[in-house]
Design goal:
The chain is built from 12 helices and 9 strands. The protein is α/β, with parallel strands linked by helices.
Length: 349
Amino acid sequence: MLGDRIKPKASTRPRDQISAEEKLCITLEFLASGTLQRHLASVYRVSKQRIGPIIEQTCTELVKVLKSKYYPVLSEENWTKISNEFHSKWNMPNCLGCVDGKHVEIKSPDNAGSSFFNYKGYHSIVLMAVADASYKFLYVDVGAYGSEGDSTVFRNCEFGQALFNNKLSIPGERIVNGKPLPNFFLGDDAFPLMRNLMKPYKPASKTQPLEPEERIFNYRLSRARRCVENSFGILCARWICLARTLFVKPDRAQIIVSACCLLHNFMMTESKQEYCPPGFDDTYDETGTFVPGTWRSLVTNHSMMNTNLNYANPGRPTKSATDIRNQLKEYFNSDLGAVEWQKRATFQE
């Protein structure tokens, strides 16, 4: 796929040419190990000045050749397929994907001021993604300033704008527990509650805990939202450059992160047994108890997996959004929508 795109150009000094195979090896080793570029230069006997452009060129071409095949076309037919998979795997009806964002650490850009300086105390760009029920990314947006709040990043990205303006070609309402229910995405507290974006219940105050039905709803939502957490965890564990500081400029960091996300989808599609073997991802046992995946032992404490988008009050939700969440809560607590282990898993000590 890449050979003709990254092969050496015609030159009067053939001995200085770097083959397409070597460029790919250098890039994949950098992405998978996160090693310093000057170390790669000494290992592959390439000048330090050439390593950065080689990685950028190869990642750019990787994005071009993989994007059309390994990011699904977001058509109504594919949305229906994704929704059915969420229902069968995670007992979540009408769900079209899980939304989340992470900070990817970069070196301090020149003359950038505090634009990239995030609430964790370092410089970063934001990776915003939507994952399906099989831990593959449906949509990725990379490059927002680390200093921006969650609501700003989400509203300004292409997917967020399409969702807010109802421009996604998603299926219409489907009957759940005898009532029509729209299709929706799942998010955490960092996102606003909307008609097509569900989030957990929050206690009204510290002295007023959630009702049992609301706690069951939160458990069921977090269980399904585990998909995007697994997606980020597997991505970070396999492409270790994302678990370390990227000593590159923001534009190059954006290309590197985009290439890692597409390589993740490529491996999950073409070689899942080797890339994500059983037990590598977070799972739930037959009693609904959470079982952490082995990817957690491969990511460091100082990595993107230990960062979330900083919380900002997204404002008061609409009545229709609140009604839809209450309808889901009733469904999860009814005989038709309940699973036998949900109470035990929700209220276990």
